[in-house]
Amino acid sequence: MRIRILGLFILVATVACSKTPEVEDPYLWLENVEGEDALAWVEEQNANSLGHLEALSTFAPIYEKNLEIYNSEERFASPGLMGDYVYNYWKDAANKRGLWRRTTLEDYISGDADWDVILDLDQLAENEGEDWVWKGSDCLRPEYRRCLLRLSRGGADAVVVREFDVEARDFVDGGFFVNEAKTQLSWIDENTVFIGSDFGEDTLTDSGYAKTSRLWSRGTPVEEAKEVFAGEQADVAVTVYRAWDRESSYDVVHRSPTFFTAIRYLYAEDGDHRKIDIPDDSTFNGLFNGQMLLSLKSDWQPDDTTYVQGSLISIDFDTFMAGSREFHVVFVPTDKSAIPRGGMMTTRDYLILNTLEDVTSKLSRYEFVDGAWLATPIETDALGSISLVTSSEDSNVFFFNYEGFLRPDTLFVANDGGETVEALFSLPSFFDANGMTVEQHFATSVDGTKVPYFLVLPNRFDAQGDTPTLLYGYGGFQISRTPSYSATVGHAWLERGGAYVVANIRGGGEYGPRWHQAALKENRQRAYDDMAAVAEDLIARDITSAEHLGVQGGSNGGLLTGVMLTQRPELWGAVVVQVPLLDMKRFNHLLAGASWMAEYGDPDTDDWTYIKEYSPYHNIKKDADYPKAFFTTSTRDDRVHPAHARKMVARMREFGHDLYYYENTVGGHAGASDNTQAARLQSLIYSYLWDQLGR
């Protein structure tokens, strides 16, 4: 089972135009993350809220069940193929921080894996007196013996990078080491890496990411690494990385002027980098058997042929760099279909696509034969959600996960590129789904757009307008929300008689780039209109009523629920606002906020004219009748600044509005860094919801 995080941002910035005046802000002092006054304020808020929420009769049983689920030995270990082994990172009650371990592919598929522990993070944290949180590894092919491990203090995005020897089960003495920063590293060979990090003055962009990339050789101080490429101050980030196409390597310079655009070059040691002349807003998916794979976010006409938005096309890379523009079409979307983010994977001989059609998954295998892509459907169950898990360049084996709101995750192994598919492991049913049903409906937004949403109804549902109903949404950054199995939602909400709804509003990626771009910048209000339309549709169908309807979202979804609170308070009996953006006047000055101006606009320019219309922090009204909302954040969130939630709560309290607030002192943008913290946070949320929405 996976503990789901409510949406994560990445990076982005843009260039400012004419400036607008600053807005007076009496709560700037709460932006001092670990300031004495700010932390004292946090402690007081936490004490007031936790004292009530943890005393609710629902808290203890939900917490105990959450912890039992999160630590359950009945979960299956999610695989990561690397060389001859399957790797996995595992956390449970005995291993709070987790074990990095491996087994052979044969043993893993047998279901009786003998796991070999490579690193015990609990032991490492105890030995070193650090609050280590695992953030992943990057291992050098083809042996995968030397790995660059990313370790975070308390769950922050900034990591310490340390070289590790898998066979020796130890860190490499004198190996590659980078102090805490938002670092990007890419292996070139055993003794050389590309690195982008914080090298001091003039080495970070306005977004706080690397502005330069350097070549770093083993045994030399990182400060002496040679700069090989530099971007602009207003860029999001610069990265140089080595990629592989079978046994051929190629190095790519990736400069991101904004979150959704990039300029790419084929790296040259002499600095004469050759531009890869593709649209800045396209996605370069690398090379596969010599073919460059390219996803289009807008229509493109490189010659006499127009390739439409959302298409996946390919071309022989060498001939492209020599001037050819004779592309091959892999996939063309319809008005109902798209390739979501993460919907592509390659094996030795096949391209695997996981597409969405009206927000349900379809899996296919593609093979390049005689200059054309041939598609073969891979049979899976209907009306579910597929996620591609892992594959290997050395074979045609890959793994994928299948799940639904009422169907526990099932891990499948596909052989020969999906010629045969076998179910390996399934989660147990952590809640009783007997009598529950799933429906898909379409609400009509203000401008007439049909907005899909999934509705999960509890056992013995009766449409009397009084069912406690939780509506979840995100609506940003082209991230899709598909049917998923959540044991927490199941036992803490559905099994207790609540209905659960996932809204596929604009701003997401459910229908590809067009669905996302429809709610960018000056069109942001469309996402909020869509969410309100779903709420109104639920009420019109007598599923629920405003006093029994709650809304939940995190990160960009926290901005969404903050807007729902301030724009449409009459629709809700409860509002959950997690790790949110709320101060949209200063978001681009806080931590990674400058990264997201391509999504929202630049509030230091005339863009503020439309941003201020929905910015939750600037639209709190003293005389409004707000439901009692619940705000959560994390002191260690170095992506979305905790001051967004802090200042919103302070302003609302100033105006006399009642609410709850909880700030976890660790946990990063996920809001929790281990199973115990996650179990507690979710228990607080569901206890709050039942207290507000229960019949």
- Low-pLDDT runs of 5+ residues are 1-21
Straight-line distance between termini? 31 Å
What is the CATH superfamily classification of one domain? Alpha/Beta hydrolase fold, catalytic domain
Q: Into which percent range does the helicity of residues fall?
A: 10-25%
The proportion of strand residues reads 25-35%
Identify the overall geometry: globular
Oligomer state of the chains in this structure: single chain
Average pLDDT: 94
At CATH level 3, the topology of one domain is Rossmann fold
Structural class: alpha+beta
Q: How would you write the strand order of the largest sheet?
A: 31-32-34-33-35-36-37-38
Q: Give the CATH class of one domain.
A: Alpha Beta
* Computed Rg: 25 Å
Q: What summary fits the major beta sheet?
A: 8 strands, mixed
Identify the CATH architecture of one domain. 3-Layer(aba) Sandwich
Tally the helices: what do you get? 13
Quantity of strands, as a count:
38
What report would you give on this structure?
This protein has 695 residues and is of the alpha+beta class. Among the domains are: 41-68 and 438-693, Alpha/Beta hydrolase fold, catalytic domain (Rossmann fold, 3-Layer(aba) Sandwich), CATH 3.40.50.1820; 310-421, no CATH class. It is globular. The chain starts with 35 loop residues before the first helix and ends with a helix.
What labels describe this entry?
13 helices; single chain; disordered N terminus; 32% strand; alpha+beta; 695 residues; Rossmann fold
Describe the SSE topology.
Elements: H1 36-53, H2 59-70, E1 80-82, E2 85-90, E3 99-104, H3 105-110, E4 116-120, H4 121-128, E5 132-139, E6 146-153, E7 159-165, E8 170-171, E9 177-181, E10 184-189, E11 192-196, E12 212-217, E13 226-230, E14 237-245, E15 248-258, E16 261-266, E17 274-275, E18 283-288, E19 291-295, E20 312-316, H5 317-321, E21 328-331, E22 337-338, E23 344-346, E24 351-357, E25 360-369, E26 372-378, E27 385-391, E28 398-403, E29 410-415, E30 420-426, E31 437-444, E32 450-457, E33 469-472, H6 487-494, E34 499-503, H7 513-517, H8 525-540, E35 549-554, H9 556-567, E36 574-578, H10 597-600, H11 608-611, E37 629-634, H12 643-654, E38 659-664, H13 675-693
Parallel strand pairs: 33-34, 33-35, 35-36, 36-37, 37-38
Antiparallel strand pairs: 1-2, 2-3, 3-4, 5-6, 6-7, 7-8, 7-9, 10-11, 11-12, 12-13, 14-15, 15-16, 16-17, 18-19, 19-20, 20-21, 22-24, 23-24, 24-25, 25-26, 27-28, 28-29, 29-30, 31-32, 32-34
Helix pairs in contact: 2-6, 2-13
